[in-house]
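Submission sheet (multi-component)
Chains listed below:
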Amino acid sequence: MKKLVFAFLVPAVAMGVLVVSAFAQQGDASRGKKMFVDYSCYACHGFSGQNGPGKRLVPMKMATVVFTAYVRSPGTNQMPSYSAKVLSDQQLADIWAYVKTLPDSPEAKDIPLVQQLKAEAGK
Amino acid sequence: MSKPKNTSVGRRGFLKGAAAGAAVSAATLVTPQLTEAQQGGGRGGRGGGRGGAAQPDGATIAREDGTAQPAPVSRIVENPGSDYMCDVIKALGFEYVSFNPGTSFEGLHESLINYTKNSPEIITCTHEENAVAMAHGYAKASGKPMLALLHGTIGVQHAAMAIYNAYGDRVPIVMIAGVGDTAVPAHTAVDLGAMVRDFVKWDHQPDTLAGVGQALIRAYKLAMTPPMAPVLVTVQAELQMGAMPANRPQVPKFTMPSMPSADLASVRQIAKDLMNASNPRINAGRIRTQQGMDMLVQLADLLQCPVGGGGDRMTFPNRHPMAGNGAGGAADVILSLEAGGGGGGGRGGAGGGAKTIVISTAELLATHNYNINGNGVNGDVYIAADPEATLPALIEEVQKLMTPDKKRLFEDRGKKHAEANRAAHAAAVEAASVGWNASPVSLARIAAELWPLIKNDDWSYVSPQAFAGNWANRLWDMNKIYHYLGGQGAGGMGYGAPASVGAALANKKAGRLSINIQTDGDMNYSPGILWTAAHHRIPLLSIMHNNRGYHQEVMFIARAASIRNRGQENSHIGTRLIDPNIDYAMMAKAYGMYSEGPITDPKDLAPALKRGVERIKKGEPVMIDVVTQPRG
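Outcome: structure written.
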C-alpha cells in the first residue's frame, strides 16, 4: 500500500543530484524482489545484492530518497540511469525495501578459510 | 593450385559408381563404368534405341539374367600415399590428432588407424570446433601443437570459429583439411583454404605427395615460430588414396628455426635505460615457457620493479613480491613484453611521460581483413623480436651494469613495492567474504573452497577466468606457466569447454589436475565435448558457473534499454537460459560422465568438490553443477 512518509533531507548535492524529493514512499519488499530481478538489478549487483561489478548494495546504507536520487542520476557511466517514466518512486522504494532484507556477509575475520587464504597470500 | 586429376578408376568415378548402387566387395571395387561390350554395345544394344527394338546380344542377356560379371579391376593399394603423410606426422612428434570423421580425409584416417596403429592417438570429436579448440587448449598447456583434421568445406566451416580464436590467441595448431570428396559436390572447393585464409598464418595445397611432406614441415615451423598461429595444409583425397610413387618420398629434414631476438646494441641500451630509471615497470603480456617466466622473475629480482601481468596468461608468479602495481608513483621507464594485441594481451606500454620500450612479435604478424591486433602497442623504442629469446641477453647486460650502490638502492625500492603488493593481495583475499553464504553461490566461494583441495598437487586452471571473476588469480598461488592458460583469444564463446578438455589431455600426461570453471553459455555451444572427455578418459574437474544466462548480454541489454528510457522488463528476452533451467549434471551423465548438482546451498559445495577432486585423481572427468551469482 502506497503511503507517504516524511523523510529527512539528504545532502544530495554531494552525490551530484540536483533535486531530491523530500518525501519517500514506503516500500514493499515482496514487490521489490520481483522488480530486482525484472529490472536486472541482480545483473550488476548479484542476486545477493553484493556480488558483481556493480556497487555493493548490502548492507544498504542509503536512505530511500538518497537511493532513489542515485538511481535517477548515478553520475557514473557504469550504472545506467532510470527515469521516473520507467521506474516510479514507489517501485524504487520497493526495490530498496527488498535490498534491506538481504543478509549481510560475515566478516572476513569470522571465516576461517578466508583467514587461511589471507595468511597464505601474506607470506 | 592445381585441381586433382581424375583417373579411370579414380575416387570420383568410384563414388559415382557407388552412388549408383554398384556392388562393392571388401577386397575389390567394381569398375565404375562398364565397358561398351558390357553395356550391350551402346544404345542400339540396349534395345532402347530410337530405331526401335533391336535383338539383344549375349552380353545384354547375361546382364539381365544376372550372370554378367564386371571386368575385374583390382583396387588394392597396399602402399597408399597417406602412409607417407603419416611418416611425416610421426616425424613431427604429434602426440594426438583430433577430428570429426569426414570422407575427404578417409585415406589419412585409415592410415592413422592401421599404419601408425593409432599413434598419434586419435581423439574423436563430435564437432570440428571442438577438434580445433581442443588443439588450442592442448597447445597452451603443453607448449606444442596438436594436429587437427578437417573435412572439406563443411568441416573447415565448422572449425572456423575455433581457428579464429586460436589466431587471436597466437596459438600454434597444425590442421590438415581433405579436399576432393566429390560424392557431395558441396563438400569440395577449388580453393579450400580461402575461407579461413584471413586467420591462419599460412595455408597451402600441395600437388604431389612429396609436396605434402614439405608443406607439413613448413606448416609446423611457421606455426611454432613467434608470432605463433594456426596453419592449414589441404591434402587432396587422391594423394591420400593413391599408391605411393615408386620412389617413396623422403621425410623432409626438420629443423626448428631459432627464435627472433633483439640485436645486442638494442639490448645494451634497454639495460642502461632500466638501470638508470628511478621507477621502472614491466608489463608482461605473453611468455612462452616456464624458462621464460623464470627469466622474467630473475630480471624483476635484479631491478626490484613491479611486474604487471599485462595480459590474461601466466607470465609472472602472482604472489611474487614484485607482482602487482607496487607502491605507485609515475613510472619513468616501462618495458613492455609482448603486451597488447593477441586477443587481449593486456595493457599497452605507453604511460604518461615514461619512456616506453616494446619488445614484441606483434608487428611480424600482418593481419588481413580482421583487425585482430587492434591498434597495437606504441613505444618510444620498438624491437620486433621475441621477448623470451631476448631475456637472456638483457639479464646479462643488467648484471654487468649492477653495482653495490645500485643494488642497495634497488632493494630499498623493492621493499616499498613488496609491501604495497602484499597489502593489495590481502585486500583481494578479504573480498572473498562478500556474499560468502549467499545462494546462488558466489564465485569467490567456489575458488576458496577448491584451493585447499588442490594446492598440494600439481594443478592447472584451464578455462578462461574473466567471466568467473578472476577469483582463482586472487586466491590461489599461481607460479607456473600452466597454472592459468588464459582466455579465448578472439572472444568467441564455445572455446571454454573443448579447450579445457584439450588442456586436460596435455595435463593428464604431465600428471596434473585440471580445473575448469565452466560458464553455462559456453557449455551449450558444443556439449558433445563431454562425451570426448568421457570416452578418452581425460581427467578434468568442470564446475559449472551456472548463472542461467548470457549474463554479460543481460547487463548490456539492460543498459541499452535504460539509455532509451524504455524500462527493463524485457531484458531477459534473448539473454537468459531459464524456463526450463538446464540440468548440467544430467547432461554430463548422458555423455557418460560422473556429475553432481545443481548445488544452490554453499554448504553443499565443499563436500561435492572434494568428491570431484578425488575422482579426477583417479583419471575420470567430473562435472559439478553449481548455480552461481551472475558475476564475481
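Remark: The interface with chain A takes residues 319, 422, 425-426, 428-430, 432-440, 442-444, 448-449, 451-452, 475, 477, 551, 554-555, 557-559, 562-563, 565-569, 571-572, 629-632 of chain B (CB under 8 Å).
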